[in-house]
Amino acid sequence: MKLNIELRTSPHLRKTHSVDTIMRNVVYALLPIATFAVYQFGISALALLLTVVASCLLTEALFNYLGGRPNTINDYSAVITGILLALTLPPGFPLWMSAVAGFIAIGLGKSLFGGLGYNLFNPALVGRAFVQAAFPVAVTTWPPAYAANRFVEFIPTTLTLPFTEPVDITGWSQQVAVDAFSGATPLALQKFEGVTTPVMELFTGMSAGSSGETSALLILLCGTYLVARRMMDWRIPVGILASAGLTAWLLHLSSPETHPGPLFMLFSGGLMLGAVFMASDMVASPVTPLGIWLYATLIGVVTIIIRLYGGLTEGVMYAILLGNAMAPLIENMTQPRAYGHARRRSRS
Predict the structure, then answer these.
(1) Does 242 share its domain with 303?
(2) Which tens digits make up the pLDDT trace of 217-249?
(3) Measured in Å, how far apart are the chain's first and last C-alpha atoms?
């Protein structure tokens, strides 16, 4: 009797989740945040989402064709990049600039590295970093939230023609649903005017900001869905939020007049969206147990340092990109000891 024995290397445990399944569920988790962005900012936010996603899909198809690779637009990765990128942009961001951002995110941040699984940086943040440098005025122009006419009128900057200066939105839609709303973000108000937005408004989504960063509660709920499905490593967002909160608390104790408390820092800006959906990128983050905590701590601490001592109001984008760049080194330094082998000792 002849037996065929097949030997394979570890790991021998398999999960039933394919890449497509995981990516599709990430899209499901992002849809409530995108829907809330449309509710908060109206048809301009919807046009922004559709434009960026379409740009990412077309760029993915173009680079696959030019590189002779199979078509991968059905794996949902480009859709995720498009949604995340759109959620990091101001709701009135010009659509032609949005299309450029989508092209850079996929072309430079993903395809030139070799496609899905080879990107060193989170592609959505690559696109966001590009427009931060290329279009600094447009990317820091914030329309008010809950404008009364948001479902029937575009924010004037949305339809700006290519290579022309965006129109001034001062005076646009003075009639807002709640009189307290203004176009300034909570981080800008705190940094430049010393005005601290109530934490509950930040937590529930009652403030201005990028399209998808305003409701910390909704982001946490959507992230919990992925954690419950075991499609996200919970240690990364927990590590980022814990280190950011601890850093903000210590600095607040040293100077409470100039440094806001930890809850304000955690719920304002893009920290929550970045910690839950961007820093947790499976490709651009470490996989070693210790490496994950070091990576998360680096991002959390650097975010707070940039916010308080840098020239920009927000620092999470640069903190995550720095974490992505450091991830291979962190992973190499934190490789666990192989069973049966002694740890390497430095030569004296």
Answers:
(1) yes
(2) 999 999 999 999 999 999 999 999 999 999 999
(3) 58
